[in-house]
Amino acid sequence: MSQSQPIISFKDFSFKYKTQQEATLKHLDLDLFPGEKVLILGPSGSGKTTLVKCINGLIPNQDKGMISGKCVINGKEINHTSIFQRGNDVGTVLQDSDAQFVGLSVGEDIAFYLENKNVPLHDMQAKVTKAAEVVGLDSFLSSLPFDLSGGQKQRTSIAGILHGNAPILLFDEPLAALNPSMSESIVDLIDRLNHQEHKTVVIVEHRFEEVLHKEIDKIVLLNEGQIVKIGKPDDFLKDDILEKYGIRNPLYLDALRKVSGNLKQDHDLWNVDLINPSDYQSDFQKFLNNRSSQPDKLTQKDAKGIIDVADLRYSYDGQHQVINMVHLHIKRGEKISIIGKNGSGKSTFAKLLTGILRPTTGDILELGKSIKHQTIQQIGQQMAYIMQDPNKMIVKDTVEDEVGLALQLRGISGRELGDRVAEALNVTDLYAMRHWPVNALSYGQKKRLTVASLLVLNPACLIMDEPTAGQDFEHYQRMMAFVDHVIQQKQMTLIVITHDMQLALEHTNRAIVIDQGAVIADDDPFKVLNDKWIVRQAGLRQTSIYRLAERIGVNGENLARASINV
Q1: Does one domain contain both 100 and 177?
Q2: What are the residue boundaries of the ABC transporter domain, all occurrences included (predicted)?
Q3: What phi and psi values does residue 87 have, to the nearest 5 degrees?
């Protein structure tokens, strides 16, 4: 790795959007060198997205504002480089994959770069097939991009930048919509591009521990538009600096600290397999001996049923069954996680529950009534659905108006409306932005906005599709704490569709695992993740606490349960 000349360089760099009063980036000094793999960390609103836009050319070419200092990308100052020129230097995978599609099919979208380079058709087809195989989409080349799951969309975007010779690859939250096993494969892919193709890789991601599946050369921590710290992973992991800025430490390190009081090594902390198990064995045995490992009750026996699924089948094309569920019973007050690999049918099932889609055969009873003859509005009175993509839900121009819209449509006004809107904005940390235009929000902030806009309704069942995608740890904790409070207070049912296994463990007491549209497991989440066959079949990944338990020689299910209940 050459350290002679940086490929990305910020010198006393500041940027203020034209529509903002204060600078978003402030006096940055940062050098990234050819061949480095760099992770940009920071809480929501810290300036990560703006930094990405400076690197890929959206600033100053599309997003106008005031620049001071200097930013040089591959030898060119950003003030004197067009979007087209920047594309030769930087390949970008956006956080919002929908915004990156240009083709009418997956194959056409992957081919877009090659088409613009006038690559002969025969060569183009071979290159597209190869790129699709790399990301696991070779059987989806004729599919419409907008019929794909969130993870499949992300892989399409990654495939689309593999053809170019750009020396810098920029990934803006590449794991946000991916199931655990797929996120691991994407991290492997990014690592191969870094080492085998000699690409300089910049990753912006909240899922810190999953990025550490492969070693990172450098971490840059941002907060309030300024660089807090630059260093190697161990420089951040040996103390509590990440937690201080709303970034979750790897779960196994939290467990080590909880059980032993402190870490007994200050190097090779980034990988659980590099931890010396003998240093901790006696502490962990004592810890588990002093704690109960009994699972929580799934629900009260006398709780009323809220959802009953009977011989439910659904097909998009009339031939391939996407959902095939014989029976499923959900009670009021349950907290359920729906988990499984990308494309397994999780989001389709949620759309069936909310009336967006209608069963091909079979039926769904909600609060004892069939949904067959109910309108979407009638179903929506009881089943509130928060989509994975916030851009598909937002209709108003300002933050405050968006949160209050559903209440206004239900005839609520005056002080009650103001109080409920203010509470939702406060717990989702959006109150200070209540007068902002929606298009000024980051993707993560939009996510919190959609959550706030439906939590105010107090429905019978709240269905959340990937609520933690794009969220930093602090906002994730605050949001889920609020959701837990509402669920308990109102005896609502919570259904969370998630790839975040720790969320399933911490905030739900029943896990329903879907594979190819069918339920293959329905049990306590800790038990589900302890079953290696289910984990492998459903594209899941045990949290690192299970791996730590295996290395230390204790029961993984018991350790995971006890460490959460500390």
Answers
A1: yes
A2: 8-249, 307-541
A3: -60, -25
